[in-house]
Each structure stands twice: as C-alpha cells, then as structure tokens.
C-alpha cells in the first residue's frame, strides 16, 4: 500500500547544505573528507509492534516506520540520506517486527532505487538500542567498515551525516564516537538525553538520559557515528548483566542480559573519557512519536523539498487545484480544480477530492475520499476513509512554540486531568464520516460508520 508511494518517487535526501542550514548561515565541511573512510555502513533502529503505541490507530494498518511523511515512508528519508554518503556499502534495519509483505516490498523497492544493499535483521525480542546492534555485531562489522552510523527511525532530520564524518576526522581521536546534538529550551530538555560538552573541543563531559532537573540545553538527536570499538564497551555491559543475572532471579524480560540501552548504559559511562563528542546541528530536527508529530515532521520535510526535491512540491497550474504553501500530491490522486490545498498537505495514492474541498495541515492517506465542500484541518484521514459533503474534520495542532527558536514538539499525553487532550483528529482505516457533521479533536478507530458529530472523544 505505502510502498507503491515509495516506488513512485525518490526518497528524501540530505544535501551538503540543508534548508535549515541555509537559514542558520552554516557552512558545512566539504564532503570529500569522508572519502578517507573507505567503507561505511548504516544501521537504522526501527523498533517493533509494541513500541508504536502512541501512533495508534495508524500503526494498526502499517508498521510505524513505513507511515508516509511528506509523501514517502518515514524510513525512506533515512535511507536516502545514508545512500548519499560516499563509500556507504550497506544499510541494515534492526527491529522486532515480523517480516511482512509491506516491509519486504519496501526494502525491495528501496534497493532497486538507491542501488545499495538494504537488509532487515529481526531481533528475537526488544533488545534496546545497544542490545540490537550488539546482537548483530558480526553482520555490522562484516567487510571491516571503519565506521557506521546508527539512526533511530522515529526522528525527522536534515541528517547531516557527511558533516558528522568531517567533524569526526577533525577531532583527531581515531576511536572516538560522535552524537548528533541540537539545542532545546530548558524545560523541554528534561524529555531528552542531555549533553554537557567542553565548549572548545566538543567532547562530551557528562551525559544524562531524561534528567529530573536541568542539566544542559544540548540534547541527543538519536543519530550516532560509531566505530567497531563500541562493541567492546557494549560487551563489557553484557558481561556485567550476565553476572548480575546469576546473582538474582530475573523478574521480567528487561533483565535479559542482552537488553542494553546505548544511551543510559554506554554513553553515560563513556562521557568524560575522551571517547564521546557532540556535533551540534542548527538544521531542523524533531521526534516522531505520535500522529500529531507526524504532521509537524511532514511540514519540515516539505519545506526541505525546495532544496532537495522541488519536483515533489505541487504548484498552481491551469485546470488544477489552488495550492497554498507546500503541498505533496501523488500523481494518482484525482483532485477537483475548485479544491484548495495547503499549506502542509500530503495527498496519497488514489485519493479523490471533490469540488470546493479545503484541506490544510493534514495528511490524506491512500484511497481516501473527500466529498464536495468538506473541510479537513489539522487531521490525518486514514486509508480508504470517506468524509461526507459539507462535513468538517478538525483537530488542534500540537506544534512547538513558534516564538521560541529552540522549542521542540511536546510529547503528547492522551489524557490530562481526566479529559482527552485536544490534539489532531485521526480517522483510522475505512472510516465513514456522514455529510454535514463536525468531528473535532477526536480519534476514530478503524472501520467505523459515524452517524453524528463528535467532539473530544475516542470513538471505539
């Protein structure tokens, strides 16, 4: 379903000068430095089915890493960024999803498109960010790569991978590791891994994952440049976990010796030893934890398309719909010329949009139908869903504070003080909204035929 979108368009990519860098006035290091690395690999950590719970009901239909953001599967943005790096020989996906037809088809299409080996390695259980790469260390070091990237799948970024390589070269420490960092505000930094650095050398002196009090406004972006030496450090934690297991009876799966967290178990210990450095980016970055953050990530990527993929952005043409701002429209979509779309709208495969329809800050997924004069704002309309004539589907945006340049998107809690938190409206797969009703700040689970208006509800 989604991979037909993947096959029809090129993936997002990172160029040496990303859109965010242009605004910030950064001058990136020249790419040829990375040619000094004769062989590189990349590992993308994609998690598993019980991890995408905040993404429901959308993750019922498709693995979260394949959810389309700015018109292509979330993972495709990572893969193209990795494929652009010189001497990148292989991309490995590590997670505990059962291999399925969609994932297999996506990998096949991506390999054909980017002309690079892409393989999925399935964990037998959730092993954590460090345990997963340690379990498959033989696969990662096969062919003797000098370094490898580790990227979390649920981040949206300009992916300054070439700049991280250049930065690592300039450090002069041959076996050091690099974390991509960015600046957050003081309050929101508590929700991330916090980095205290040496201002002159950028060495990480102290690392704390989600501290209870303010530590630093530099946060971990979940993108790392590691050397094979990292496995010695992970191995030491593995040995310690095994010894601890002999002393105490394990009470749950987390006590499994191989379940290791790169951030808490490895980076915290390595900080201050001259092994860990931070490369700070001024380009855009955001987490994609919830459906609301997917709309925000879509806006960031659509904005980057001006630099990387202008052909993906729709424009005002004779006989076409009115386009306002950045809009992605799949070529198979059928849109009435009197419709108005944008800003920040993604239209998927086979979507039908009728006369006078207004869509803003929304994602319309494969096969959906928006009937005449309906209005969709700050919403995700699920696969094969229908919004009736003159209906209004509206949510509340969960954007960062626009007046704070370092603000990040807040991790949404579904309920606050016993009430459903107003957020974007989500229609699951195959939902039917009747004519002339209003669906406001609500989540509709798949296969529902509604018969009236709803406000601030989860419709089961």
Provide structural commentary.
The strands form seven sheets. Strands 1, 4, 5, 6, 8, 9, 10, 11 and 12 form a nine-stranded mixed sheet that branches. This protein has a seven-stranded parallel sheet with strand order 14-17-20-23-26-31-33, with no helix packed on it. Strand 9 and strand 10 form a beta hairpin. The chain starts with a helix and ends with a strand. The chain has 460 residues and is α/β, with parallel strands linked by helices.
Average residue pLDDT: 85
User: Span between N and C termini?
Assistant: 24 Å
Number of helices: 10
- Show unreliable segments: 1-34
How much helix is in the residues?
A: 10-25%
Percent strand:
25-35%
What is the general shape? Answer: globular
Radius of gyration (Å): 22 Å
Largest β sheet strand count, sense and barrel closure:
9 strands, mixed
Tally the beta strands.
34
Structural class: alpha/beta
Itemize the secondary structure elements and their pairings:
Elements (H helix, E strand, L loop, with lengths): L2 H6 L10 H6 L15 E8 L20 E2 L2 E2 H10 L4 E8 L5 H14 L2 E6 L5 H8 L1 H5 L5 E6 L2 E3 L3 H11 L5 E7 L9 E5 L6 E6 L8 E9 L3 H18 L14 H9 L5 E5 L4 E3 L3 H18 L13 E2 L3 E3 L4 E2 L4 E2 L3 E3 L4 E2 L4 E3 L1 E3 L4 E2 L4 E3 L1 E3 L4 E2 L4 E3 L20 E2 L2 E2 L4 E3 L4 E2 L4 E3 L2 E2 L9 E2 L2 E2 L1
Parallel strand pairs: 1-4, 1-6, 4-5, 8-12, 14-17, 15-18, 16-19, 17-20, 18-21, 19-22, 20-23, 21-24, 22-25, 23-26, 24-29, 25-30, 26-31, 29-32, 31-33, 32-34
Antiparallel strand pairs: 2-3, 6-11, 7-13, 8-11, 9-10, 9-11, 27-28
Helix pairs in contact: 5-8, 5-9
């Amino acid at each position: 379903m989604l991979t037909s979108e993947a096959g029809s368009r090129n993936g997002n990519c990172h160029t040496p000068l990303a859109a965010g860098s242009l605004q910030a006035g950064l001058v990136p290091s020249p790419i040829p430095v990375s040619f000094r690395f004769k062989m590189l690999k990349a590992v993308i950590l994609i998690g598993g089915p019980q991890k995408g719970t905040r993404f429901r009901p959308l993750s019922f239909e498709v693995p979260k890493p394949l959810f389309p953001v700015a018109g292509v599967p979330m993972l495709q943005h990572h893969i193209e960024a990795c494929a652009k790096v010189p001497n990148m020989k292989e991309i490995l996906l590590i997670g505990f999803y059962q291999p399925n037809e969609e994932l297999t088809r996506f990998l096949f299409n991506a390999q054909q498109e980017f002309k690079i080996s892409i393989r999925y390695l399935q964990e037998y259980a959730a092993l954590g960010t460090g345990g997963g790469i340690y379990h498959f260390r033989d696969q990662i070091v096969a062919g003797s790569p000098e370094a490898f990237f580790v990227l979390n799948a649920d981040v949206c970024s300009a992916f300054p991978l070439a700049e991280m390589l250049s930065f690592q070269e300039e450090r002069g420490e041959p076996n050091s590791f690099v974390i991509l960092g960015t600046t957050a505000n003081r309050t929101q930094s508590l929700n991330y891994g916090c980095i205290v650095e040496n201002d002159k050398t950028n060495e990480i002196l102290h690392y704390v994952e989600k501290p209870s009090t303010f530590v630093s406004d530099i946060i971990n972006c979940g993108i790392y440049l590691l050397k094979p030496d990292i496995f010695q450090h992970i191995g030491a934690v593995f040995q310690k976990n095994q010894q601890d297991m002999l002393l105490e009876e394990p009470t749950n799966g987390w006590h499994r010796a191989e379940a290791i967290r790169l951030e808490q178990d490895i980076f915290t210990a390595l900080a201050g030893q001259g092994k860990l450095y931070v490369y700070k980016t001024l380009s855009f970055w955001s987490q994609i934890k919830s459906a609301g953050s997917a709309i925000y990530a879509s806006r960031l990527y659509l904005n980057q398309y001006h630099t990387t993929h202008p052909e993906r952005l729709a424009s005002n043409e004779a006989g076409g719909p009115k386009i306002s701002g950045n809009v992605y429209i799949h070529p198979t979509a059928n849109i009435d010329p009197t419709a108005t779309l944008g800003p920040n709208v993604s239209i998927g495969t086979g979507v039908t949009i009728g006369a006078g329809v207004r869509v803003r800050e929304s994602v319309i997924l494969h096969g959906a139908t928006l009937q005449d004069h309906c209005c969709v704002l700050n919403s995700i309309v699920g696969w094969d869903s229908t919004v009736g004539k003159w209906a209004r589907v509206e949510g509340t945006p969960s954007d960062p504070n626009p007046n704070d340049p370092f603000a990040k998107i807040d991790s949404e809690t579904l309920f606050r003080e016993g009430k459903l938190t107003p957020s974007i409206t989500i229609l699951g797969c195959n939902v039917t909204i009747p004519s002339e009703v209003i669906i406001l700040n609500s989540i509709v689970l798949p296969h529902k035929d509604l018969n009236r208006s709803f406000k601030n509800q989860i419709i089961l």
